[in-house]
Amino acid sequence: MWGKGKFYRSKLIKKLLIFLLFFTTYSQKLISSPKEDILANFALIKNLSFEFKQQIGEKIERGNCQIEYPKLMYCLYENDNRKEIISNGRTLVIKNNRYNKTYFYRLKKTPLNYILDKKYIIEEIKNLEPQVTDNGNIKFSVTREDDSFIFFFNSKTFDLVGWKTIDIYQNVVIFEISNVQKNIDIDKKLFKLPAVN
């Protein structure tokens, strides 16, 4: 009689261990990683509208932007120059409205060529391990031959919240995004390049 009780307890313990092992394995599959959540969220984004803070050295500028993937961008700076940045997917324009000066660049020669390419960002993130920043955001560091980028995502919403890179003049650029709206109607005329002056 005493031997039977031991046998049943032993069998019960084995069943319990098997259940716990199965439950642990299954629950880990249900809980996705932050990287998977970021990739899933980012894949659904067609466009973004947001406010920004840009820091280059000690200089801080603010404004608002619209991005339409792939590679379309319009930003208006809230400064005395009323600077605009426009990308039509091939050309990047920086326009100083105060002095009526317009500068044209090939988008491929700028870091924005990669920053505005959602497919590129997704493919790079797939091969990277996320890191947690001091303020709790998640970052991915991308290194290319001539360029390096750090993309920042919110750890709760998994939205893109900024990037850090080097501009065409070799300055470190920190670009922070806030008040993000996703997949809204954006006027395509914003991405039309101004005439050459």
Low-confidence stretches: 24-31
- The geometry reads as elongated
Strand order of the largest sheet: 6-5-4-3-2-1-11-10-9-8-7
For the largest beta-sheet, the strand count, sense and barrel status come to:
11 strands, antiparallel
Using the CA coordinates, give the radius of gyration. 24 Å
Count of structural domains: 2
The secondary-structure element order is: HHEEEEEEHHEEEEE
CATH topology-level name of the largest domain: outer membrane lipoprotein receptor (LolB), chain A
Number of helices: 4
Distance between the termini: 100 Å
Mean pLDDT across residues: 87
CATH class of the largest domain: Mainly Beta
CATH architecture of the largest domain: Clam
Percent of sequence in beta strands: 35-45%
Write the layout of secondary structure elements.
Blueprint (H helix, E strand, L loop, with lengths): L1 H29 L3 H10 L3 E10 L2 E10 L3 E6 L6 E5 L2 E6 L4 E6 L5 H4 L2 H9 L4 E2 L5 E6 L4 E6 L6 E7 L5 E11 L15
Antiparallel strand pairs: 1-2, 1-11, 2-3, 3-4, 4-5, 5-6, 7-8, 8-9, 9-10, 10-11
Helix pairs in contact: 2-4
